[in-house]
Design goal:
Number of helices: 10
Order of helices and strands: EHEHEHEHEHEHHEHHHE
Number of strands: 8
Strand content: 5-15%
CATH topology of the largest domain: Spore Coat Polysaccharide Biosynthesis Protein SpsA, Chain A
CATH architecture of the largest domain: Alpha-Beta Complex
Largest sheet: 8 strands, mixed
Length: about 325
């Protein structure tokens, strides 16, 4: 068995999606740069490494701050999307734009909650032979009880639906250049990167870290968006809900046949008793079940509709600096 190739001083790009982050960006931008300088000083990465901010159609001064940062230091570069496209599309835009210009990239959020120093261990894992390194939360003590339960339920539900996902991993990860090339082969419009990256394959490892409180500003990911992301993840990567509905349809068909036979026998034996309440209950129950099934099927049909249009997943309006 051949030894893993020795990897020396890769060019690292840190990709940071930003949406209305004017309150926190000036603080975290400096922290990102300090981490980059540390990695360069220890000889782990090349001096050509940079930080790439992706402005996701912010309505505040986020883009102005990115432009100012880029003017002050060539290690800061920025991309601005033509409109708000959502976190996953903004992240993908950054990853695809730095592809071919770096040996490795690390994606993380702008709010400073992810432990930036975990980048060091991610780079070490890459130097040891990993092409994908997942940042995994070691615990959730900073979360409220409700958020902790819903987040854990989110991962359990995805696993139950057959989605391959890394438990307690969000979008804090390292990807090598060939992992980026592999990710570029996936052309779907309905993005759920947490589920797509494991499908890329290659050697992977994990790095545990503790997530802290947001440095400033408010979260842009309320419960409604979390539920939307979970549903997108299930319907984009699994057909298990439709199969479940199929099995349910077979089960209720059998029960309906039994009920039909019972009704016929009761009629001819003179034991039939008219009952308005039972009839209404059955009609409401099966009517609700049918509407629920149509909703699930409609969600899949809608995703097919979006995929066949083949619309661009993002459009870059402006750039600062050189990638």
């Amino acid at each position: 068995m051949e030894d893993a190739p020795v990897r020396e001083k890769p060019v690292l790009y840190i990709v940071v999606p930003c949406y209305n982050e004017e309150s926190v960006l000036p603080v975290t931008a400096r922290l990102f740069l300090l981490e980059l300088e540390y990695l360069v000083s220890t000889g782990k990465i090349s001096t050509g490494s940079k930080i790439c901010f992706v402005n996701d159609g912010s309505s505040d001064s986020t883009w102005s701050i990115i432009c100012s940062l880029s003017s002050s230091d060539v290690r800061y570069v920025g991309l601005s999307l033509s409109r708000n496209r959502g976190h996953q599309n903004a992240l993908l835009a950054g990853l695809m734009e730095v592809r071919g210009k770096c040996d490795i990239c690390v994606s993380m959020d702008c709010d400073g909650q992810d432990d930036i120093s975990a980048c060091r261990r991610m780079v070490d894992e890459y130097l040891s032979g990993s092409d994908v390194v997942y940042g995994v939360r070691s615990k959730r003590e900073t979360d409220t009880t409700f958020k902790r339960l819903t987040a854990q339920g989110f991962y359990r539900l995805l696993e139950l639906m057959g989605v391959e996902i890394v438990y307690n991993h969000a979008d804090y990860r390292l990807l090598s250049s060939r992992a980026l090339d592999g990710l570029a082969e996936f052309g779907e419009v309905n993005l759920f990167l947490r589920g797509l990256v494991p499908l890329v394959g290659f050697t992977s490892s994990t790095v545990e870290y503790e997530r802290s409180e947001r440095i400033a500003g408010e979260s842009h990911y309320p419960l409604s968006k979390m539920l939307g992301l979970a549903f997108d993840g299930i319907t984009s990567l699994s057909i298990k809900p439709i199969r479940t509905l199929s099995f349910a349809g077979v089960l209720f068909s059998v029960l309906g046949l039994v009920g039909f036979i019972w009704a016929v026998v009761a009629f001819f034996t003179g034991q039939a008793i008219s009952g308005w309440a039972s009839t209404v209950c059955f009609v409401c129950f099966f009517g609700g079940l049918q509407l629920f099934a149509l909703g699930i099927i409609g969600e899949y049909v809608g995703k097919i509709y979006l995929e066949v249009k083949n619309r661009p997943r993002y459009i870059i309006a402006e750039r600062t600096g050189e990638l």
